[in-house]
Write a structure and sequence with these properties.
This protein is mainly alpha-helical. It is built from 15 helices and 2 strands. It has a two-stranded parallel ribbon with strand order 1-2. Helix 1 packs parallel to helix 3 and helix 4 packs across helix 5. The protein is globular and about 60 Å long. The protein starts with 7 loop residues before the first helix and ends with a helix.
Length: about 425
């Protein structure tokens, strides 16, 4: 008897994934080499701890953050690892080709791998919006398109807008959020009766999702400071990120209880909104010289995130037809926009203090960089969503959304237990 679940993974995934992996191996063979200089060996000791922290955020933090659905935990964690592994390989090549000044082999350093991990995190963030509604084949295509779009956007910001590497990377939150929302809009379908219960959280999965939140909360200062070379900037980034995260955590728990009729705390708010401070302070973290401003950003980000969690799901579902499974919009998108605006304000103040006459030009450039991140996220997300809707990918039926059993072997079901 044939399975009632779609055979899309068995029919398409091995062919697409193995051919793609073989192509990547060939490209690495002909076009890449390691950096063997003594300078790179010295940088290895300095960069590796931050690299480890970022890798933990990507693999464990974002993996478990999206594991709260009662019947989609396996797919959330394992698909996250699959996308990260594929995305890092492609990002190393893409960044190398886009950034090299002359023809020749791409030189791989630990810094380039760290940059690739951070770029691949854009897909892991966006995937939260389409969680449970796409198979692995669709996610492979999403990885390739989104990493390409994000890398190209960062290259344009650096070359034409003179945006530094840290700022262009911190726009990852708004880019990934609006990319994911646009893809979710293309994939969203009315859920049939009986499917809604699978879109709810359960106690044990929520505990694992809280584990992901804790990993992200602990290591976020490393993410915000990873691309800063000046020691004083790196120190400011670490300190300010901790202050903002601490205030957003306190704000989230307090406001979550305040907004409930019986004064109870929502675990979904804790999963997402406690991280809002780290997102909001990311772009400007190195410019903030006093902790109170980082704490204000954490407070406002927590309020915005809780407000979004209370209002946006109903608004987006009914008005725009967007089903944001993981709350990407109010976890990353809105706090990311707040952080972008805060950076522009701080640049204006800093320019005024130094009596520089280029204030108008600088505001235009910084506003353009933030707007570009949103625009590229929306346009590339729309393109990706249209591609993912093609029947060739054999997407899971809407009745099988949010269901691990569509993709995984369950031995206990086969043996009758």
């Amino acid at each position: 008897m044939g399975s009632k679940y779609p055979r899309s993974v068995r029919g398409c995934l091995p062919l697409w994934a193995l051919v793609l992996e073989a192509a990547l191996i060939v490209i690495f063979f002909f076009f890449t080499t390691y950096d063997t200089s003594l300078q790179d060996q010295g940088m290895l000791l300095r960069i590796y701890p931050a690299f480890q922290d970022v890798a933990v955020m990507a693999a464990l933090g974002l993996g478990f953050l999206t594991s709260s659905l009662r019947r989609h935990g396996w797919s959330s964690v394992a698909f996250n690892l699959f996308m990260l592994a594929l995305g890092v390989q492609w990002a190393v090549l893409l960044d190398g080709f886009l950034n090299q000044s002359s023809l020749g082999k791409v030189i791989i350093t630990l810094s380039s791998i760290q940059m690739a991990v951070m770029s691949a995190m854009s897909v892991l963030i966006s995937a939260g919006a389409v969680l449970g509604k796409a198979n692995l084949v669709q996610l492979v295509l999403m990885v390739l398109v989104e990493v390409t779009a994000f890398g190209t956007m960062r290259m344009v910001c650096r070359r034409f807008l003179n945006t530094d590497s840290h700022v262009s990377m911190m726009h990852i939150h708004v880019f990934a959020a609006y990319f994911g929302l646009t893809v979710a809009w293309c994939l969203s379908r009315p859920l049939p009766e009986g499917t809604e219960e699978k879109n709810h959280t359960a106690t044990s999965p929520s505990l694992f999702a809280m584990l992901g939140t804790l990993f992200l909360w602990m290591f976020w200062p490393s993410f915000n400071s990873a691309l800063l070379d000046i020691p004083s900037h790196r120190k400011n980034a670490i300190f300010n990120t901790y202050y903002a995260l601490a205030v957003s955590a306190v704000t989230t728990i307090s406001i979550s209880a305040l907004t409930h009729p019986q004064g109870k705390i929502s675990m979904m708010h804790i999963h997402n909104a406690v991280l809002a401070g780290g997102v909001a302070v990311g772009t400007a973290c190195h410019l903030i010289t006093s902790p109170w401003l980082a704490m204000v950003l954490g407070l406002v980000a927590g309020l915005i995130s809780i407000g979004g969690a209370k209002c946006l799901p109903v608004c987006c579902n009914r008005v725009f037809g967007i089903h944001d499974t993981g709350g990407v919009h109010y976890t990353f998108g809105l706090p990311g926009l707040l952080g972008g605006v805060a950076y522009i304000v701080l640049i204006i103040l800093q320019t005024n203090w130094t009596k520089t006459s280029m204030i108008g030009y600088q505001v235009l450039i910084d506003t353009g960089a933030l707007s570009l991140a949103v625009a590229v996220g929306l346009v590339s997300g729309l393109l990706t969503g249209m591609l993912l809707n093609l029947k060739i990918w054999r997407a899971p039926h809407v009745a099988k959304y949010f269901d691990d059993q569509a993709f995984w072997e369950f031995p206990h079901l086969a043996t009758g237990f």
